[in-house]
Each structure stands twice: as C-alpha cells, then as structure tokens.
Design a protein that fits this description.
single chain, 171 residues, mainly alpha, elongated
C-alpha cells in the first residue's frame, strides 16, 4: 500500500506543478505541496483533509493579508494574526484547518514578495485550491475505476458460477 500511495501522490504532485507552470504561476509549488498534504489512501480522508486545507488557507489568507499589511516587523501583529485565524477555525470545530490557517498567515506575513499582499494572498489560495481540486479529482476517478473493475469481476465470477451450475444440472 505504501508504494501505491507514494506513486499516486507523486504523479498528482508532479501534474499539479506542471500545470501551474503552464498557467505561469511563479509559486506553483504550493499546488504540488497541497496535493501531497491532502492525498490520503481513502476518498473520505482525502475529502476531509481537502476541506481543512481549503478552509485553513482561506481564513489564513485573510488574516495573513491583514497582518502583512500592518506588519513592519511587529511580532505582536504576526502572533495575533495566527491566534485569531486559529480561533476562527476552532469556533467552527475545524481544529486542523486552524493549524493550516496559521501556516498560511506565516507564509503571507513572513515571506518576502514582489507583488501586493492582496495579490500574494489570492495567488496562495488559488495555488493551494488547484492542488486540492486535482488531488480530489484523481482520488474520485481512482475510486470510480476501482468500483467499476470490482463490479465487472463480480459479474464475471457470477456468470462463471452460473455456467458451472448449469453444466452440473444439464450435463
């Protein structure tokens, strides 16, 4: 299972990064990182991780934008931004999203950028969302294909047992 998880995750992450390069996103590695973060071995777990990552990034993006706009090296502003973004997530019972919102606040506030803070926050959300959507789509397709193959196998086994039973009754 570990090798399969590694293979599928690496394919999705590489595809995400390739796609962001085609879109001309300068920090497309966030899409690849997001795909790695949310890819789980089961669809339900991938959906939960994706929800948390998306919500955490959205909330962290808003607080990160506000902090970076006021930043000027003030650690108190940075700390309050993380605190508030996590509290908002926890208020909605999304603790994991809270941790991810703190990461997003940190990235937007602390990482030097050449564009406006608002543009950086929007790019981060778009890049992360792209990785999440691709990971979800891949996982959903994989589940559907697996179910289809399982049904075909069961149908073929049922037809073989019917044929075997028929040959016993009518030799």
């Amino acid at each position: 299972m570990g090798a399969w998880q590694g293979l599928r995750t690496s394919v999705v992450a590489a595809f995400c990064y390739w796609l962001t390069r085609k879109f001309g996103l300068r920090e497309g590695y966030w899409a690849a990182i997001s795909a790695v973060v949310v890819m789980q071995s089961e669809l339900g777990a991938t959906v939960d991780a994706s929800r948390d990552r998306l919500i955490g990034t959205a909330i962290g993006g808003v607080f990160g934008w506000a902090c970076a706009s006021l930043w000027n090296g003030n650690l108190l502003i940075y700390a309050v931004g993380i605190f508030l973004s996590m509290v908002v997530c926890w208020a909605f019972n999304l603790g994991t999203a809270g941790r991810l919102s703190g990461v997003t606040v940190s990235i937007i506030t602390l990482v030097a950028h050449t564009t406006s803070t608002a543009v950086m926050a929007m790019h981060r959300f778009f890049e992360v969302s792209l990785g999440i959507v691709i990971a979800l789509a891949f996982t959903l397709c994989e589940v559907r294909i697996s179910d289809m193959l399982r049904r075909r196998k069961l149908k073929a086994a049922g037809e073989q047992s019917s044929a075997a039973a028929s040959s016993i009754i009518h030799p």
